[in-house]
Structures are given as C-alpha cells and as structure tokens.
Amino acid sequence: MLSLTDVHAGYGNLPVLHGVDLDVAAGSTAVLLGLNGAGKTTTAHTICGALRVWSGAIHFDGHDITRWSTKRCVDAGVVMVPEGRRVFPDLSVGRNLQVGAWTQRRDASWVADRLEQVLGYFPRLRERLDQAAGTLSGGEQQMLAIARGLMARPRLLIVDEASMGLAPVIVKDVFDIVRRITADGVTVLLIEQNVGALEVADVGVVMERGRVVRRLVGEQLRDRSAVSAALMG
Ligand SMILES: Nc1ncnc2c1ncn2[C@@H]1O[C@H](COP(=O)(O)OP(=O)(O)OP(=O)(O)O)[C@@H](O)[C@H]1O
Ligand SMILES: [Mg+2]
Asked: For the chain, how many structural domains are there in total?
C-alpha cells in the first residue's frame, strides 16, 4: 500500500535521508524504530507531503504521491499525528476533533457521523467533549491527537512517538487502540523509540542515520534482546 524507494531528503543543503526504502502492506501495523535523530520524523514528513523529496519515489495505493501536497495526501487518506501531540489547548475536545475533519467541514452530518465512530474508540474523550484540551492529562491528550487524526478517516495513519512520556499502563491503552484501529481496516505506521511497540507490529523497521537498516518480522519481533541490539546498532 505504501512504499518508499530510495528516498533522499533533508533541510536546506543538509541531507538527512540517504535512500530510505520502506514497504507497508495494506491492513498491517508497521513500527518504525530508531534512535534520536535517525530520521523517523523526517521520513514521515516526506510521506505526508510536508517535506520535499529530493530524489526517489513514494507510492501509495498505486499512486505516485512523491510530489503531492499535504492536502492532497489527506484527501487520499494519508494522515499524520505529529510528535508532541500538538492539540489546541484552548479549544474544547470536541472542537479539536472537528478540526481533524477540516477537509469535510462543509458536510456537517458527515462530521457528526464520523465523530460518533471515532468516539467509539475513546470513551474517555466522549466524557470530556466540552473540556479544554489543554486541561487533559498527557495520556488523554495523546488519545485526542490520535482521535483528531482519525477524524479525517485515514486509510494510512502515521503516528509519531505516541508513547513518549506516558506511563506504561497508558502506553498499553494507546497500543490497544492502535490494534483496534488496524483491525477496522486502517493501515498504521507507528514511529517509536519504545521497543515495546513491536508487540502490536506486523513488521518492524529499524532506521539508522537516514537509512532503513533492518526489517523484523514474525519471531524476530518477539525477541526483545535481538531487537534492542538491532536498535543500538
Ligand atoms: N527543521 C529542521 N531543520 C534542520 N534540520 C532538521 C530539521 N528537522 C530535523 N532536522 C535534523 O534531521 C535529523 C533527523 O531528525 P528527525 O526529526 O527526522 O529524527 P527522529 O528520528 O524523528 O528523532 P527523534 O526520535 O528525536 O524524534 C536530525 O539530525 C535533525 O537535527
Ligand atoms: Mg522524531
């Protein structure tokens, strides 16, 4: 469904991605692991049209999306939940969710139906629809960030560092929801430094210095010490 082929990109004159190859199958959860600065967020930004690709190609669902704008990517179903949550703190939970459906904003009944579907995953958000997002706990804000991404009805959801800064029990809740989202047909690319994310992975991909250096499947995903060793190079 998603494939990156020899993708090079960077900032200004500074190259960061040195030929990224990545494949994510439809209906799967892929976990992209790597240490700080490996190029994970940069990779995500190239996929969703937020950063220009210098060379190489990105295909999604049979389309060459290498040069597509973010808006066009969202319309095609490629949605990213950014690192650091970035909810609008002064807006209510409900308004934050509506913002996630901005491309459909002219169709109020579509947005209302979608809100019901999304809240089905997040009962705690339903209880807090009128609460200012900035007053939510860290875990709730992460849930809101994911829920806001889902409001656009993605076919591919890219979630950047969902587990960062959260207590293990909350991380488990987040990963359980990711499982349900995937089960409902959304392909998920989780970007993580937390090796525990491999529990929900169909495939694990390790990035190092702007390249994909390892691909883990099956038993390899459960072998934590091998994974940690792979991550540390
Ligand atoms: N806007 C920017 N301008 C210049 N350099 C940048 C910019 N964003 C990222 N970089 C550089 O690109 C490299 C890769 O950063 P990136 O954010 O993709 O890493 P990451 O794998 O997501 O790391 P982390 O786990 O810390 O989020 C780093 O060396 C970083 O300094
Ligand atoms: Mg990052």
From this structure: 1
